[in-house]
Amino acid sequence: MKLSALLSAITGRLIVSCQASEGHALRHTGTLARVARAAADGRAAAIRCGGVGGVADVTAVAEAVDVPVIGLTKSGREGVFITPTVEAARSVAATPAAVVALDGTARPRPDGSALRDGIAAVHELGKLAMADVSTAAEGIAAADAGADLVATTLSGYTPNSRRTEGPDLALVGELAAALPEVPIVAEGRYHAPEQAAEAIRAGAASVVVGTAITDPTWITRSFAEAVTTAGGEHVGR
Ligand SMILES: CC(=O)N[C@H](C=O)[C@@H](O)[C@H](O)[C@H](O)COP(=O)(O)O
Question: One Pfam match, by short name (predicted)?
Answer without folding.
Answer: NanE
